[in-house]
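Sanity check. The docking grid for N-(iminomethyl)-L-glutamic acid depends on where the pocket ends up, so I'm generating a full predicted complex first rather than guessing from homology. Inputs follow.
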Amino acid sequence: SASSFRLLVKNATQVVLVCRNGEKYLTRDGMQTLAVVENGSVLIGHDGLIKAVGPADIIESQFKGAKFDNVLDASGMCVIPGLVDAHTHPVWAGDRVHEFAMKVLLSFYSICFNYCILYYMNISLSLCVREVSILTSKHLNTNNEALSLCSVVCVQLAGATYMEVHEAGGGIHFTVSHTRSATEQQLLDGLQSRLERMMRAGTTLVECKSGYGLELDTELKMLRVINSARNSLPIGISATYCGAHAVPKGKTMEEATQDIMAVQLPKIKMQIASGELQVDNIDVFCEKGVFDLNSTHCILKAGKDMGLNINFHGDELHPMNSAHLGAELGALAISHLEEVTDDGIAAMARAKTSAVLLPTTAYILRLSPPRARDMLDAGVIVALGSDFNPNAYCCSMPMVMHLACVLMKMSMPEALAASTINAAYALNRSHTHGSLEIGKQGDLVIINAPRWEHLVYQFGGHQELIRYVIIKGEVVYE
Ligand code: NIG
Ligand code: FE
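Predicted complex below; grid placement will be based on this.
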């Protein structure tokens, strides 16, 4: 009897395999010469895996007489592997649109300027914030919002950094208080709609962090929400416990570390063992004023001993020696790295610890972007992520690739490899994801353009450019 398959995508102008020899990652030279088949087809079986990929005429004669549940004629279109987003914070309540708006609302500037002067004259920030909030609260829903907003604008106008916003009670702390009081259903609704937007932009595998709870119950709530999304949506999810995303208000770093080590991690370990939770990675925000190198080491090591992959925030705002620590612990990935040293880069290259670069963060915080070229030249495995979070609200890997090219001087093939095979490596999934090779999962993006590079070149509007998104051979968007 004739064999049957779930999906045949035929006659695509280009099929970008990314790699073809089972590579688990690519470094600079391999990234510059991606494997591409001109006029190609892809065949996906009922198990959701790729059964054949290559020149259209060969596949046609090889599978003559076979039955296909679905055939897509991709003439004039291009096929790439499903995109992999290696770093997101998508579970939260309470947006931070005010933090952004204050950068553009000129009418507030003159009011706030005076208070910034007070601030510089050492008049307490909280007093200054309270006063400004009274002036501006009529524009806002609640006095609390006004307070948070004004603390942010005061410090931003004073040329403050992300950490000063954080210390003034904005940033992560704002999101933590909203996430703690949200119900599980509210968080799940928010997560599902964000993941759907990501899928619509071509992401088929995404890393999702907890980290807006900073105490056991809310961290568990976030991890359960991630698990529910995994069971209710086709997108692939790699779940990360990030209980060390900030030191909760009212605690010291030592107390927070102790709580994670003695309370949170043991409970999570039990729930993983009983099958209640699936957690893949452990993360810590290793930063001056957040978790120092010692605490980071303790927490990551404990996570590793539980079988989690190490994938953490390091060397973002200050050089912390995070890269050395990650290399020493056998971390799979370190994110950010805006401030990594040359030695740190060399250590990561030796240890095959991938660098997850996040161009949205540098863009939104006006930081100098991570030194992608130096990392590539040193042989580091460079991956990309959106860093989707209430500070950097970007669901789109095509946008991230565009920013990587413009801000970090990556080539378009490098950006695509960093968003497919290398991002899959950062999540320990490059044996199943990240390239179009026989036996891998049938996750594809079909682009309505004569060359795949249009996806990077055209910024914004990729809803029109992406014709189909396919996960395990099922069309999830068209
Ligand atoms: O990766 N740097 C720390 N964490 C996030 C930001 C989280 C937030 O601001 O809510 C990041 O950029
Ligand atoms: Fe992050």
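Relevant for the grid: Residues 103-108, 120-143, 153-159 have pLDDT under 50 and may be disordered.
Also worth noting: The domain at 84-92+182-426 is CATH 3.20.20.140 (TIM Barrel).
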